[in-house]
C-alpha cells in the first residue's frame, strides 16, 4: 500500500489488529483487521492525510451508517481515533469484490444487472426513508459478497446528504460532490439532491452493469457535464429489449419529475421486468416441440415402414 502510515500487526484503539490492506483511495485506506476481544475479522477504514474535511467526511459516514440497518448496506460497528489521532471506522467485512472489479471481466447482461440493482435499490430506499441521500452510487461503492454476489452491500456514505433536519451534523446539500460520470444533472448544477438523485446513479450503474458502457463518456469534465445536461443517452449495442431500455431511460430522465420518483419504484419496475421475461421464456419453452419425443417418433416410423 503506497505511503501508508500503518503496517500489518498495528493495533488500532487497543482492539483492532491490522492484518492486510484491502484498498486505498485518495482520502482513506481500508484494512482487514482482527477484533482482539471478539476474535472476529472486520474492516477498518482509516483517514489518509491531515485534511480536517476528510476526517469530517468519515465522521459523517459513521453517523449515516449508524442510522441504517439493512442487508444491502454495510454495517458500522465502531468509530473513533487512533492513538495518533487518525479517525477510523470499524465496519462489516465483506469478503468478495466490488461491482467495478467484477465488470472488468465483462457485463452482467440485463437480467443480472436488473437483479443486482433492484437489491441495491432496496438499500437505497431504507437510506432515503431515513432522509439520507447517498449521492455517489456507482460500481466501486457496491460490494459483492463471494458467497452471494447478488446480495450486494452499499458502502461509502461519506458524501451523503440529508433531506431533512433530522441530524444537523450531517452535511447539507449545496456543494457539487460525487463522481462526474454518475452524477445527476441536478448535482452538476449544485441543486438540492433528493431520492431521484440516487435513482440516476443507480440507472447509470444499471446500464454499465448490463452492457459494459456508460451513458455519457468524455475525458473532459466540462464536456461530460454538457453531455449529461443536454444530450439523451444513446441506446447501447445489445440493448434489444425495449422494456428494459425504457427502464434505463426513465432512470436517466434529466427532469426529476419524469424520473422514477424513488429507489423503491425503480426496484419494482426491474422486478416486474424480470418476472415478465421469465414468464416469456417459460411460455416459449413450453411451446417448443419435445426434441427427444419427435426424434423417437421419427425413428419408430422409419423402423416400421423401412
Keywords:
single chain; disordered C terminus; Transferase(Phosphotransferase), domain 1; 40% helix; alpha+beta; 306 residues; six-stranded antiparallel beta sheet; Phosphorylase Kinase, domain 1
What this model shows, in words?
- With 306 residues, this protein is of the alpha+beta class.
- It has 2 domains: 13-91, Phosphorylase Kinase, domain 1, CATH 3.30.200; 96-280, Transferase(Phosphotransferase), domain 1.
- Helix content is 40%, strand content 17%.
- It has helices spanning 52-66, 99-103, 109-129, 185-188, 195-211, 221-230, 242-251, 263-287, 291-305; strands spanning 11-12, 16-24, 28-35, 40-47, 76-81, 87-91, 96-98, 132-133, 142-145, 153-154, 161-162.
- The strands form 3 sheets. It has a 6-stranded antiparallel beta sheet with strand order 1-2-3-4-6-5, with helices on one face. Strands 7-9-10 form a 3-stranded antiparallel beta sheet. It has a two-stranded antiparallel ribbon with strand order 8-11.
- Helix 3 runs antiparallel to helix 5.
- It is globular and about 55 Å long.
Runs with pLDDT <50, length 5+? 165-175, 291-306
How many H/I helical runs? 9
The value of Rg in angstroms is 23 Å
The strand count comes to 11
Q: In angstroms, what separates the terminal alpha carbons?
A: 76 Å
Strand percentage: 15-25%
Q: Which CATH class of the largest domain?
A: Mainly Alpha
Average of per-residue pLDDT values: 86
The biggest beta sheet is recorded as: 6 strands, antiparallel
Kindly name the structural category. alpha+beta
Provide the number of structural domains: 2
What share of the residues lie within helices?
25-40%
Amino acid at each position: 500500500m503506497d505511503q501508508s502510515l500503518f503496517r500489518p500487526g498495528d493495533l488500532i484503539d487497543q482492539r483492532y489488529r491490522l492484518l492486510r490492506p484491502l484498498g486505498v483511495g485518495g482520502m482513506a485506506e481500508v484494512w482487514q483487521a482482527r477484533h482482539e476481544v471478539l476474535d472476529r475479522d472486520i474492516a477498518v477504514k482509516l483517514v489518509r492525510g491531515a485534511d480536517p474535511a476528510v476526517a469530517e467526511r468519515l465522521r459523517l459516514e459513521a453517523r449515516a451508517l449508524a442510522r441504517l440497518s439493512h442487508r444491502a448496506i454495510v454495517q458500522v460497528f465502531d468509530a473513533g481515533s487512533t492513538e495518533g489521532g487518525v479517525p477510523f471506522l470499524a465496519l462489516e467485512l465483506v469478503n468478495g469484490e466490488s461491482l467495478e472489479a467484477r465488470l472488468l471481466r465483462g457485463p452482467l447482461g440485463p437480467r443480472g444487472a436488473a437483479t443486482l440493482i433492484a437489491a441495491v435499490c432496496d438499500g437505497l430506499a431504507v437510506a432515503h426513508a431515513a432522509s439520507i441521500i447517498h449521492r455517489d452510487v456507482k460500481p466501486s461503492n457496491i460490494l459483492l459478497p463471494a458467497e452471494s454476489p447478488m446480495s450486494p452491500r452499499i458502502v461509502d456514505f461519506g458524501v451523503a446528504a440529508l433531506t431533512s433536519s433530522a441530524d444537523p451534523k450531517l452535511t447539507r446539500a449545496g456543494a457539487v460532490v460525487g463522481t462526474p460520470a454518475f452524477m445527476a444533472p441536478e448535482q452538476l448544477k449544485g441543486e438540492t439532491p433528493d431520492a431521484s438523485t440516487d435513482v440516476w446513479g443507480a440507472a447509470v450503474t444499471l446500464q454499465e452493469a448490463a452492457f459494459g458502457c456508460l451513458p455519457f463518456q468524455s475525458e473532459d469534465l466540462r464536456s461530460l457535464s454538457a453531455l449529461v445536461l443536454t444530450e439523451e443517452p444513446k441506446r447501447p449495442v445489445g440493448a434489444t429489449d425495449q422494456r428494459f431500455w425504457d427502464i434505463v431511460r426513465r432512470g436517466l430522465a434529466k427532469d426529476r419529475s419524469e424520473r422514477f420518483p424513488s429507489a423503491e419504484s425503480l426496484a419494482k419496475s426491474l422486478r416486474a421486468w424480470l418476472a415478465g421475461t421469465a414468464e416469456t421464456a417459460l411460455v416459449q419453452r413450453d411451446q417448443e416441440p419435445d426434441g427427444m419425443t419427435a426424434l423417437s417418433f421419427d425413428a419408430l416410423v422409419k423402423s416400421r415402414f423401412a
